[in-house]
Amino acid sequence: MLKYLIVALALCAVAHADEWTPKTGEQIRAIRVECLKETPLSNEQIGQLKNLVFPDEPDVRQYLACTATKLGIFCGQQGYHADRLAKQFKMDLTEEEALKIAESCVDDNAQKSPTDVWAFRGHQCMMASKIGDKVRAFVAAKQEEAKKKAAA
Questions:
Q1: Per residue in 6-33, is it b (16+ CB within 10 Å) or e — as a string?
Q2: Spacing of C-alpha 45 from chain mean position
Q3: 3-state secondary structure string, 129-142?
Q4: What pTM did the predictor assign?
Q5: Contact status, residue 49 vs residue 60, Cβ threshold 8 Å
């Protein structure tokens, strides 16, 4: 167990020390596919996620923790990295404004929640913020665009 903890801390430290860059849409899609293989979700859950509804269920929490970890924005030992959250999800906000939002959603897990619960808590906070509003608007616009292409 101690060896696992040391390796996990070392990996987290290495991941945080390197030159992290925001992931592209293609990279995010690939990560989602990997995480769905690791934590299969029901068709109903997948439908909810596509509509940006995130039920507080173990499988959904584990899937979100997986994606956040693979995106490099969350580490099971340190939690969310506010600077990376801000860069990845700033949308059309300034990086300073996005960072302020991200910092308000980051916690040190003082209550010692399991990793998936901790990651889910931060995710819910972000989705309840102005960043979440921007993400919902972006997804809605993409869905509308897809409908128009399908109708044409």
A1: eeeeeebeeeeeeebeebeeeeeeebbe
A2: 16
A3: CHHHHHHHHHHHHH
A4: 0.83
A5: yes
For position 17, what pLDDT does the model report? 53
Please, where are the H alpha helices in 25-94? 25-38, 43-50, 58-71, 82-89
Asked whether the beta carbons of 98 and 86 are under 8 A apart, the reply is yes
Nearest to 72 by CA among 131, 27, 36, 134: 27
Arithmetic mean of pLDDT, 40-68: 96
Name every residue whose Cβ is closer than 8 Å to that of residue 117 and which is 6 or more positions away in sequence: 61
Kindly report the CA angle at 59 between 58 and 63, in degrees rounded to 5? 115
Q: Whole-angstrom Cα distance, residue 94 to residue 96?
A: 5
Determine the residue type at 112.
K
Helix, strand or coil, per DSSP, at residue 51:
coil
Nearest to 41 by CA among 22, 24, 54: 54
Shortest CA distance to 22 belongs to which of 79, 65, 76, 83? 83
Name the one residue in this structure whose structure tokens are 């956040």. 68
**72 DSSP assignment:** T
Element (H, E) at 75: strand 74-75
